[in-house]
Design brief:
Number of helices: 4
Distance between the termini: 37 Å
Order of helices and strands: HHEEEEHEEEEH
CATH class: Alpha Beta
Largest sheet: 5 strands, mixed
Radius of gyration: 15 Å
Number of domains: 1
CATH topology: Nucleoside Triphosphate Pyrophosphohydrolase
Number of strands: 8
Structural class: alpha+beta
Shape: globular
Length: 185
């Protein structure tokens, strides 16, 4: 079953006890969604679908990449649709590379860094739906230059200390906190 690899990754994530208290609900929803929908990786599943995202740190781990998403109008981490790909790490890597313009991202492990379920508003092409987002950690090479993609209004390095005042949602703040705790411990 093509969903088995993701379910195994999620099981390992739960066993590692790296989950923040605010993630539990999203985690449980993702597991139930993947088990219930053989087509969970397909964008054509209009109630929602699996997405992969990347928390991209600078080489010195002082900054992260955030993109001002063109369709959503908010600052988020790079990420996107699986479009049938069941290797969600690969989805996150592809999306991070495409959306940041950084060709040589380094994976900081193949394990899940964070999970989140968030509502995507309806537009002229699709109804309101959920993104069941599985997130991974990456590091940029030294002197990496960002290139704004067609999916973004803007793209920037955000200093770890500036994230507290940056206009992001709670899940981005949670990842920032995890990133900081990882660096400290």
């Amino acid at each position: 079953m093509h969903r088995r690899a993701l379910l195994d990754l999620l099981s390992r994530y739960e066993a590692q006890r790296q989950m923040s208290p605010g993630e539990r609900g999203s985690f449980d929803r993702i597991v139930a969604f993947v088990r219930a929908h053989p087509d969970c990786f397909e964008r054509s599943l209009l109630k929602g679908h699996i997405t992969g995202s990347a928390w991209v740190m600078s080489h010195d781990e002082e900054r992260c990449v955030l993109t001002h998403h063109k369709k959503l109008g908010i600052w988020v981490q790079p990420g996107g649709h699986a479009d049938g790909e069941s290797d969600v790490w690969q989805v996150a890597f592809r999306e991070a590379t495409e959306e940041s313009g950084i060709p040589d991202l380094e994976s900081v492990g193949l394990d899940i860094f964070d999970v989140d379920v968030h509502r995507i508003p309806a537009n002229s092409k699709v109804p309101e739906h959920d993104h069941y987002d599985v997130r991974f950690l990456f590091r940029s090479p030294p002197e990496a230059k960002l290139i704004v993609s067609e999916e973004s209004h803007d793209l920037r390095w955000v200093d770890q200390t500036a994230l507290a005042d940056f206009p992001v949602d709670d899940s981005v703040r949670r990842m920032a906190k995890k990133w900081q705790q990882r660096a400290e411990g």
